[in-house]
Amino acid sequence: MIVCAAYSHELPKYGIKCGMTNYAAAYCTGLLLARRLHNKFSLDKVYEGQVEVTGDEYNVEDLYKKAHAAIRENPVHEKKPPREVKKKRWNRAKLSVEQRKDRIAQKKASFLRAQEKVAADN
């Protein structure tokens, strides 16, 4: 039974625009999942978690501090509205009997005109 879910492609909403598959993104995704779970069971005030973010070594501390703050502020997943999808037709629509007969008549007329033109040129 799945209680809640979080994915790394949701991280741009929280300020992380790159590195969706690195360790830090995995950590942020885990944090997002944990915050959602705590929020769902009203435990987000009881379990505050790691408040101090340290990322000095790679000069990304500010980026992840902002992301962690944004995740703590609003961990809820927002559903996107359904898109209006226009159905694309990959093959041609079938012609009706009248359309097929008309098409054949046009081809015959075109062929006869071409034959008359050739006969007139000779």
From TrEMBL:
Keywords: Ribonucleoprotein, Ribosomal protein. It comes from the Eukaryota. GO terms for biological process: ribosomal large subunit assembly; translation. Residues 73-92 are annotated as: Disordered. InterPro entries: Rbsml_uL18_euk_arch. Residues 73-84 have a biased composition (Basic and acidic residues). GO terms for molecular function: 5S rRNA binding; structural constituent of ribosome. Transmembrane segments: none annotated. SUPFAM superfamilies: Translational machinery components. GO terms for cellular component: cytosolic large ribosomal subunit. Belongs to the universal ribosomal protein uL18 family. This is 60S ribosomal L5 isoform X1. It comes from Pelobates cultripes.
